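Good morning C.,

I know you're traveling, so I'll keep this short. The sequence:
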Amino acid sequence: MQTLPSGSHVLRHTDVYTHTRVLGQDFLPKWGCEATHVDMTNLDTVGNAIRPNTKVLWMESPSNPGMDIIDIHAIAKIAHEAGAKLVVDSTFATPVMQRPLQLGADVVMHSMTKYLGGHSDVQGGALIFREKDKRAAQAGEVRTVIGGVLSP
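The tokens, ready to paste straight into the viewer:
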């Protein structure tokens, strides 16, 4: 999200992890961006909420805490028709159960504190990009500057 240009709009699902909500409400405005939320299980609502400056559609599937299952393929189509990227937090499904890139997502993330870490004793995350584009390079730069070392 730190790589979005000022003036960007992010559209996210209503049911998201608490700190993801905080990111949209408290941090994105500081970076000159705006986030709004809609029920992404309703495809018409998603399509109607797209703006000319919408750069990212952000979703968790299954969502946390409500466990909403969102049609990743359909949301990817809506995002791409609008010129936006689809970011999917697939923490709860893990790569064993769900492959968002194969369904059209542009970026997939996993919190390693949950199922990938196994015991909630690992702090870390994973970002997987569909293509090595400008955003992937920028995310790599952020990781290099801020750090990418897992906790012991």
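Safe travels,
E.
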